[in-house]
Amino acid sequence: MELTFKDLTKRFGRKRAVDRLNVTLTHGVYGLLGPNGSGKTTLMRMMTGLLKPTSGQVLYNGQEIGRMGDAYRAKLGFLPQEFGFYRGFTGNDMLRYIAALKGLDEKKTEREVKELAERVGLSSADMGRLVSGYSGGMRRRLGIAQALMDDPEILVLDEPTAGLDPQERVRFRNLISGISASRLVLLSTHIISDIEFIAGDVLILRKGKLLLQAPPAEIIASVKGKVWTVEVPPEEVERFQKTCLIGNLRQTGTGVELRVVGDEATAPAAVPAEPTLEDVYLYYFREASSQ
Amino acid sequence: MRRQPAGKTGKGTGRRLYALELKKIFPMGNRIAAAALLAALFLFPFLLRSSTLGVYETVAERKAMYAEHGGEITEAYLREAADTARDLPDPNDPEAWFTMTEEDRKEQIWLEDLKRKLERFGLPSYEELLWDPERTEPLLPEGYGPVLYADTDGWELYMKLQSGIGAVVSLVLPCFLLSPLLNGEVASGMRRVILTVAGSERKQIRAKWCAALTVVAGSTVLTALLPLLGTALCTGLTAPGLPVKNLGLGLEYEWTIGQLFLLRSFLLFLGSFTAAALTAGFSGLISQTVGSMVAVLALFLMPLLPLPKEAPQWVVEAQKFGPAGFFTGDILYDGSMTKLAVFCILWIVISIVVACTGRIAFHSMKIPEEFYRN
Fold first, then answer.
1. Of A74, A87, A101, which has the smallest distance from its Cβ to B203's Cβ?
2. What fold does the segment set A3-216 form as a domain?
3. A70 and B8: CB-CB below 8 Å?
4. Is B181 helix (H, G, I), strand (E, B) or coil?
5. Are residues B202 and B133 in the same domain?
6. What are phi and psi of B344, to 5 degrees?
7. How many domains does chain B contain in total?
8. Which of the listed residues A135, A261, B191, B349 has the most CB atoms within 10 Å of its CB?
9. ipTM associated with this complex
10. Is residue B40 within 8 Å of B165, Cβ to Cβ?
């Protein structure tokens, strides 16, 4: 299975939300990173067929997805950023509704509902409750369950871990890792650690253009030697914040330890540090971070 | 060109979607509101009973009165009424009312009821014979068909309810329940999910239409039957086979009261259907859930606005052709079955076109989600 973005462009008026994107995705988990307005959501909408490209194509195994229509959508599972619920529906009702829309028969529906609820950690008591009474994290888990209904080949998840507590996020990561072998998972998130742990490849978008595509380790290696730690007296912190990109601040007994991201060491005492994906994000989106 | 498959359709998916669409339409709040409206419809006959019966008599007394005085209204019948009235104390004297015998009181009630019915039938009152005892020319117009003095209290009360509160419920209930039919999917954040599921628009819209039709049929049947049941329990509904003339509605058709009931109920159904289809259509064209309901109610209520006296005739006629005509009965009482048929077909076609346009717009990728959010 292969999904290709070929010269993919989407313009809204004069603004190019996605600008001549050329990427090929196969099996595995792809993390989509970029600040707000970088084109992530637009790209996901074009990939799910919700938006038509201004020019260029999205190809599934060489076929244009618009032409494939339902044949392509039958392979999709999608969790939008704002996944809601129907008033008066229980968790079971929501999943049964999606199952019916996907055309699953009754037997398969009941089996899938039970399995998916277990997978995302919703008990049968939870599933029998009205979704309006769910916490944000529970709703998100239900959203993930509906996206996984009928075992889709392509899974598009927009901010799937927003609102999940750390334990739920670990469960989600394990779930995605477990199912990614035979399918394509594209997930966008602001929680970089999610991508760092599970993504086979990371796509970094800036102003609608693909800045980088590589496995997390390679991307992290690209900023090796550009991350430093330096301990400064507390009164110096403000000066550093004005002149450097600070990734982290930590109080020590003797001062403040700053994690600085930049091409050069900002102080003679600065010590090179092991970079993380978060440092990569900060490094490549310096302008966005400073705004 | 080869057609692409429209997604899977497992056994029973349509039925399950339909049941869940109905559940969407009836969350707890809506169920309570609908039940309260329908309960009110059932209880209204008990509240309005006095408007038909008068305050002094009971149902049993009136039934006895109809048993004693029932019959065709003829010249002889009116002369007998005038003779009886002559022998009774003056009904305008409050003292006399409290001192008259039980027998006289019953006769007085009969005469009052007869007077009211003659007025409704557009016939002169027997009282003209009291003022002019020597009168020899007939009171009833020549060729006036047979009209019975009979127990139609229940039907009169029911027709009042059907064209009043029943019509309001038949209109408001589908508008209220179906206003979020399409744009509610955006409010619930599900439109994007639905648009990415193979063949889901078709499956979903079929289920939605079926659920909406159920609401229309259910609300029509209940708004027709509940006041009917209430009226039957508190007043009785005798003689559905009487000619419709006996209701004094000015209808010239050779129908029975039962047939009129069925026809009016059918018109309520069509009115309710029109309101539902327009609401469903607008809910795909208007971003706000309340907006679709307000738009339809405005359309229905506009023809009820009073027109200035100098309004041209075509405006008066056009106003009758507004969709409110389903509920007011103006077109039915106008006397032309052709006009009634044209009216019904016109509005059914308009409402179906609006519903289909709304559905196409809602499921079109050309209309972005943001449209429904603004």
1. A101
2. Rossmann fold (3.40.50)
3. no
4. coil
5. no
6. -65, -50
7. 2
8. A261
9. 0.83
10. yes
